[in-house]
Amino acid sequence: MSESLAGRLARRIERDGPMPLAEFMALSNGAYYAGRDPFGRGGDFTTAPEISQMFGEIVGLWCVAAWECLGRPANVRLIELGPGRGALMADALRAARLEPEFRPEVHLVEASPVLRSLQRAQGFDAVWHDRLETIPDGPCIWIANEFFDALPVRQFVRIGGCWHERLVDREGDGFRFVAAPALRRAGAGEDGDIAEMSPAATAMAASLAARPGYGLAIDYGYVEPPGRPTLQAVRNHRPVDPLSRPGEADMSAHVDFAALMRAAREAGGAVWGPAPQGEWLRRLGIEARAARLGGQEDALARLVGEDAMGRLFRVLAFAPVGAPAPAGFLDGEGG
Ligand code: SAH
User: Fold this and answer.
1) Reported pTM
2) Which residue blocks in the chain are alpha helix, DSSP H?
3) How far is the CA of 185 from the centre of ligand 1 (A)?
4) Which residue among 27, 33, 107, 198 has the greatest number of ligand 1 atoms within 8 angstroms of its CB, and so is best to mutate?
């Protein structure tokens, strides 16, 4: 598996030459998620739904509100992209039972067999898909928490005033970046600058925006370009060199929300936000829920705290053009 992934990648590079970073990342993450449960203290990282049930509950009530904005369609599909252990969906469906008439058909987009079986063990009815495309059309509400950051990125480096794509070559027992032949002359900037983009993420945003309904993309990311590459790899809650452990570390990049927003609008949708996660959760009543549950002080601080997930994580909502504001957003924050 992981050992052999590094070996397989090395053999392929030997045969075909250096490969684009996006391909290396797709193969690495495919193998990484296929073979393990990466979440929590014993794993590599912890996500919001794993911190507290409050996160999924609020998302579930948001879904009910979105369904009301759609006119309460009977045949609504509730889609989750990259559901991890399935905790978010389980909490969301439990909270959504407050509205007994909201009875969505649940569709999960998940490539990993290990994670699919953990999701199945949550006990709710669902249909699994490898890709979004096999989910039937029709009114939908979709959620994606820490999904877009896992989609492959391409990088370009400025050398001698020109942009070159960064490829992955083998070096000894490991891997290193090399530059492809020049693509085109670069504009302003300096040699050594690195540009990053995720065509997989923008294509996904466009496909989602083309469906009639509301959606939520929650992730760490930026609207203003950070001026540096954000590709990272995490193993045992610690950063490691992104090329050093294909298939054994979680590779991700910060989400370019401005690019998702452009793609969604070009596909005919409207977008709201992105709002900082902390503010969005507060607007939807997380503090009252925490008080009611009790014992949630640490979880609340992690989910909404400015130095924790509250500011780095953002919530971008998709909606039909002209439809009411999604819950947690104010008039004027979208369109
Ligand atoms: N949403 C969950 C898990 C986030 S981790 C949570 O918040 O806890 C990323 C998830 O996306 C995993 O379930 C992983 O298997 C899935 N995933 C990553 N890339 C994918 C792809 N290209 N297609 C389908 N699922 C993918």
Assistant:
1) 0.97
2) 2-16, 21-34, 48-51, 53-69, 87-96, 113-120, 199-209, 257-266, 277-283, 286-293, 297-304, 309-312
3) 36
4) 33
